[in-house]
Amino acid sequence: MPQRRRVLIVEDIKFNQALLADILGAEYELALAADGEEAVLKAKELHPEIVFMDLTLPKMDGFEAARQIRRQVGPRSKIIAMSANADEVRKTDARVAGMDFFLAKPFNAKSVAQLLAQIFPSRTDTPAVKAVRQ
User: Fold this and answer.
1) What whole-number distance in Å separates Cα of residue 88 and Cα of residue 130?
2) With contact defined as beta carbons under 8 Å apart, do 62 and 54 qualify?
């Protein structure tokens, strides 16, 4: 069995946290943060491979949290911006802040799996990726 990838979900809405955790399944080691400040602290502690970053958060927004993660943790983590506002300006702002990908809300298993397949093209054994291929 391959090693579980460490994922940090940064989302202040519990429903979205639970939905994303359910989609990712047991093959990922999940950590949760409900605001930008907590996200930076957990990223420094855990060094996750993937950070799902909501852009609108309490205490510190996702843009600033991503900038701080980049400064304090480095480029290793893939940061995925998440927002219901998926216009080009928002996507550009996310890239400038250091985010690598964009996941539009509302998301579903297929959109998450497509994104994961893009990030990890050789990883085809996860339930989320298998769901896309069916």
Assistant:
1) 30
2) yes
In this prediction, residue 25 carries a pLDDT of 84
Q: Domain 5-126 in CATH: superfamily? A: Response regulator (3.40.50.2300)
Environment class of 89 (CB within 10 Å of its CB; exposed 0-12, middle 13-18, buried 19+): exposed
Nearest to 75 by CA among 46, 100, 105, 56: 100
Closest by CA to 99, choosing from 77, 117, 121, is 77
What is the rounded distance in angstroms from the CA atom of residue 57 to the CA atom of residue 39? 10
Q: What is the mean pLDDT of residues 10-22?
A: 96
Q: Are 51 and 44 in contact (CB under 8 A)?
A: no
User: What pLDDT band is residue 120 in, cutting at 50, 70 and 90?
Assistant: confident
Q: What is the DSSP letter of 2?
A: P
Alpha-carbon distance of 102 to 93, in angstroms, equals 11
State the CB neighbour count (10 A cutoff) for residue 11.
25
**pLDDT, tens digit (0-9, with 9 covering 90-100), for 55-103:** 999 999 999 999 999 999 988 899 999 999 999 999 999 999 999 999 9
